Amino acid sequence: MRCRNYTWLNYSVGAGALSEPPITFCEERQLLLERVGEAVSQIIWLQSERIAAVARGEMDLSSLDDAIRDANAEKESRKQAFMAHVWEHGC
To answer: What whole-number distance in Å separates Cα of residue 15 and Cα of residue 91?
Structure first.
């Protein structure tokens, strides 16, 4: 099944030239991809916080470790949703 949530972007190259194949833009795909990016950004931020805590000499990092683990699980979930959409809709 092809994705129905897309916009066709048509263009031509040069005057009187044949049109290039249409490019599709799927808003849902873009939203899902942005959500993956947000999850990755959260992981990077948490890892930076963990590095800063180590540099400060903090000994108990379990709460940050738990947060990083949860953020990785969330990223994986969002990645799977993105991949499932692309697989199902072909966009």
So the answer is: 30
Cα dist from 32 to 42, 54, 64, 80, whole Å: 16, 33, 26, 10
- The secondary structure of residue 39, as a DSSP letter, is H
- Token reading at 23: 């490019």
Burial class of residue 89, CB neighbours in 10 A (0-12, 13-18, 19+): middle
- What are the structural domain ranges in the chain? 28-89
Give the number of other Cβ atoms within 10 Å of residue 52's Cβ: 11
What is the DSSP secondary structure assignment for residue 2, as one 8-state letter? Answer: -
Encode the chain (91 residues) as per-residue pLDDT tens digits.
556 655 555 545 555 555 555 556 899 999 999 999 999 999 999 999 999 999 999 999 999 999 999 999 999 999 999 999 999 988 8
